[in-house]
Amino acid sequence: MPGVKAATPLAWFGGVYKDDKLPFAQFATDPQIIMQVFDEFTLPDEQRPAVGRALGRIPQGLFIVTAAFEDRRAAMLASWVQQASFEPPMISVAICKGRHIMPLISDSHVFGLCQVGKTKDDKVILRKFAGKMPAGEDPYLGFELVEPTVTGVPILANAMAYLECHMTTHLDIDGDHDLFIARVVGGGGPGGDPQVHLRDDGCKY
Question: Secondary structure of 23-92 in the HEC alphabet?
Fold first, then answer.
């Protein structure tokens, strides 16, 4: 059609937040194409370097997110973790869409957070979990786990600190990560100095 530069499917199927008294619209669409059509949602190229530098200055810890469901176990390195509530104690975790751990969290409704410190044991943990693992490999092979735990989720015994979390909300936000909100139901660890991570460019890993 003359004058049309891009088009995207956009099928409205409604939705509710918590109960029927809080409706909101949801649309099924192509996540890549829609950004071409609604380019106001995309950061202009000329602003990206400055915004990336500013985002990269936000301090972040390093954590191993752990989860298990039935005979499946998974773990991944994450840094977008933040306390979200005092009472009850709650945290938020952002996880890149498509990560293999997400279905396990959704099915089990629990996950663990193992904070990475600065010891030699922590360096071993980082080497193990910083990269992608072969499909079917047990990520905890060779690591001692905390036994027992409140939720049954795998917890690395050498972690500086850990939290056991019960997922309360999974938000599929309009971005490349999903947001998990969880209530903290257990925790522990010896303590120590945490890793603090800064990025040169906060617009990419």
Answer: ECCCEEECCCHHHHHCHHHCCCCCCHHHHHHHHHCCCEECEEEEEEECCEEEEEEECCEEEEECCCCEEE
pLDDT band for position 42 (50/70/90)? confident
Residue 133 and residue 142 in contact, taking contact as beta carbons nearer than 8 Å: no
* Separation between Cα atoms, residue 86 and residue 121, nearest integer Å: 30
d(CA 164, CA 146): 11
Question: What does the block give as tokens for 42?
Answer: 């995309």
- pLDDT at 202 (0 to 100): 87
State the Cα torsion 181-184-188-194 to the nearest 10°.
Answer: 30
Pair of tokens at residue 24: 């909101």
| Distance (Å) of CA 8 to CA 24, 29, 36, 57 | 21, 7, 9, 35
For the chain, state the CA radius of gyration: 19
Length of the chain: 205
Residue 160 in this model has a pLDDT that exceeds 90? yes
Instruction: Choose among 181, 124, 195: nearest CA to 157.
Output: 124
Give kind and range of the element (H or E) at residue 183. strand 177-188
| Apex 182 CA angle, 16 and 101, nearest 5 | 95
